[in-house]
């Protein structure tokens, strides 16, 4: 599998009306603006069960969100599907449950990572704290590197 065949999905989520909480959405929008081949970007206020469809169609997925307890520097963490779909049908889902749902309903789930961006300010408004702004820049570098280098190799080795 080469770079042109790999289907990569970046899902950024969070509340853009609550300052740092919107960093996942803004990162995903910046990735979309890069116009990288094979990359699809989805932004959401929160994760929901219907995302299992595009997740099941991807070869690899990165979930990007604000994280109060994230360490610095930020790190991509590979994740596996949850053991059961669990509370996926509740108000909101989490990345592992969505992977499990994609596997259960569509018979496949992609290689996946989470990227928690260090944040501190959830007040109403726009703009980021200096911590979130640094995380924003670091996240873009990590995602670009992952897409350009590791995704294709990792997907090829897994498939």
Short description:
The chain has 159 residues and is an alpha/beta fold.
Task: Report what the structure shows.
Helices cover 37% and strands 20% of the residues. Helix 1 (23-34) links the parallel strand 1 (8-13) and strand 2 (39-44). With 159 residues, the protein is an alpha/beta fold. Helix 1 (23-34) packs across helix 4 (130-158).
Give me the secondary-structure topology.
Layout: E1 8-13, H1 23-34, E2 39-44, H2 52-57, E3 60-67, E4 76-79, H3 95-106, E5 111-118, H4 130-158
Parallel strand pairs: 1-2, 1-3, 3-5
Antiparallel strand pairs: 4-5
Helix pairs in contact: 1-4
Report strand %.
Answer: 15-25%
Mean pLDDT: 88
Class computed from helices, strands and strand pairing: alpha/beta
| Ends apart, CA distance between termini | 9 Å
Strand order, sheet with most strands = 2-1-3-5-4
Q: What is the 3D shape? A: globular
Observed structural traits:
159 residues; alpha/beta; 4 helices
């Amino acid at each position: 599998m080469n770079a042109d065949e790999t289907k990569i999905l970046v899902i950024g989520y969070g509340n853009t009306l609550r300052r740092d909480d919107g960093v996942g959405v803004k990162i995903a929008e910046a990735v979309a603006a890069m116009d990288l081949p094979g990359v699809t970007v989805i932004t959401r206020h929160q994760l929901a069960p219907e995302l299992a469809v595009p997740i099941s169609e991807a070869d690899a997925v990165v979930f990007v969100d604000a994280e109060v307890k994230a360490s610095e520097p930020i790190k991509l963490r590979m994740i596996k599907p949850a053991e059961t779909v669990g509370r996926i049908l509740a108000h909101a889902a989490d990345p592992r449950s969505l992977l499990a749902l994609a596997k259960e309903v569509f018979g496949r789930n992609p290689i996946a990572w989470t990227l928690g961006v260090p944040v501190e300010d959830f007040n109403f408004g726009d703009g980021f704290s200096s911590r979130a702004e640094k995380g924003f820049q670091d996240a873009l570098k990590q995602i670009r590197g992952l897409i350009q280098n590791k995704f294709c190799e990792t997907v090829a080795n897994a498939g």
